[in-house]
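Protein modeling request. Please complete all fields; requests missing the sequence field cannot be processed.
Requester role: graduate student
Desired output: 3D structure, token encoding
Chains: 1
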Amino acid sequence: MRGVLRLSLLSGASLLAAQPALAEDAGDQPIIVTGHGLDSGPATPAYDVETIDRDAVTASASGRIEDVLSSVAGFSQFRRSDSRSANPSAQGANLRALGGNAASRTLVLLDGVPVANPFFGYIPYSAIAPERIGSVRVTRGGGSGAFGSGAVAGTIELLSAGPTEIGTLQGSALVDDRGETQASLTAAPKLGEGFVVASVQWDRGDGFWTTPKDQRVPASARAAFESLSGSLRAVAPLTADVEVQAAVLAYDDSRTLRFKGADSTSNGQQASLRFVGRGDWQFDVLGYVQAQDFSNIVISSTNFKKTLDQHSTPTTAVGGKAELRPPIGEDHVLRIGTDVKLASGHLLELPYSTVTGLPTAVRHAGGDQSDLGFYLQDDWTLGDLVLTAGARADRWTIRNGFYRQASPGGAVTQDDTFANRSGWEGNARGGLVWKVAKAVSLRAAAYTGMRLPTLNELYRPYVVFPVTTNANPNLKPERLRGYEAGIDVTPIPALTLSLTAFDNKLKDAIANVTVATNVQQRQNVDAIRAKGIEASAALALGTVRLDGSLAWTDSQVEAAGQPLDGMRPAQVPKLAASATLAWLPHEGWRFAATVSHTGAEYEDDLEQYVLPAATTLDAYVQVPVAGPVSLVLRGENLTDETVVTRNQAGSMDLGVPRTVWAGVKVML
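Delivered output (668 residues):
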């Protein structure tokens, strides 16, 4: 991996050094370097798309990307905790009330590279510093096609910022009322016709109490955290129409959850190389490699001793994408492409006796997965009408699965190997957007999608006391069928309104199903059916801006003959809404307040334990004080709302309490 990172950096540096000669060869042709891939095409508005601009991305109250995404109603993780107090393996990304487990049903891309952990399916949110992001585009609904496989609930595209958005140098340092700190530094110098962006972010603190005061014991601990991430990205032109992008990302994260010694770690490295051509024959070729690891210590909630050491979960992934857009006429954008991802991971864990304090066994489990996709999509513009249609075929494999347990002395007590499986999945999507009047557009879309079960779902059992959840090596891929229709209205230039109605059905949905007292198993249920409406509004009046988002969903599990049939999926609220009012009186000034509401949801599949509804108020203030230096004040949960993130038979965890940050920001 280190060799790959070194090669990517050297490649980027060499290309930047060669730019004067390249510019000379280009003659009088202007060289425009964007640092992004090809545009998404004229049919993007046919789907329910919401974009978060850089100002909103960099002005969240917590400074964390998952809270930025929460401004899109309907976005959720498995739990309401953020990356200070959640177990990393529970931080998947989901949309449209298709939750119910911790794996991501939403495909998250950073400059075209999927970032989910290949073993668990969680998103390493702490590795993605908002200061590095230029914009976020969220597409709700199945997106299997040119995006890639796994986008059964939607796609979140994170696009990196360049010197235009960042400036030459930008940094910040803040401290909150508990003494926690957050610091970042990003440099984005232009080099010839290209640029480099180098960034580092460091967050640390003793954390807040996640355990309610009346449930604390001497072994209870604050949610201490420390995360460090760094990235380097180089962009340079090869010709007037072709640019190369090289990037590396590395991160390390450690957290404590609930009890002293209940520590988790996650870390990873990622490198990518991308070539983008914007000539007559447009192309986008991307390759990447990832290495990630995860560990976790489980502490008994009865005697507060170590019961399990999830010692390591090394995972690697190699993948890429190649897309060609031939010139077939001004009215058509034809996309022909292929993508591939190869993933491998295994775990090593040791259960411990709470009597002797010694390990009682050694467990290994894991396997390999692959997905090779081929897709074709055409966007056809007919005046005020844009039609889009596409098809995708995926060849998937699940191989080399195993679960092995041995005694501490090495005697094998269980040795299971699982049959290799493979198959083809076909998917399609299509839609239209019709500008019926200057201020009104109508849209409709239909789509299908597919998600493979993660290696974690297939092979790794886990315990959240007192419930044990067993793996299932026979899980089938999830398959989505969805429809939606919407309207976008701009009655005046300053106001944009959007409304979407949708009906999505996730067949063979993977859920944690109760099979005995305090025992669950991951199983394919018949389906999760989610119907609902999504609405958004944006109003800009001079220096004042109001943005709002709302999602209401009727989501049910279809599991004939099982107790959870007809029930709402776990961790899925009916109503979610968010609104941000911002005032920008002068350049560099910002006053903003955000109100977010999450409706009640259930902890479990049998609707026994409720997580009450919660409404929070956040605030952000930025005021220039001297030259490039600004004062920054941030407030999280200013009303000190009690946010219950876990309710296991009355044993609860809480989300972030009232938190006030103060610091400085420097922009050159």
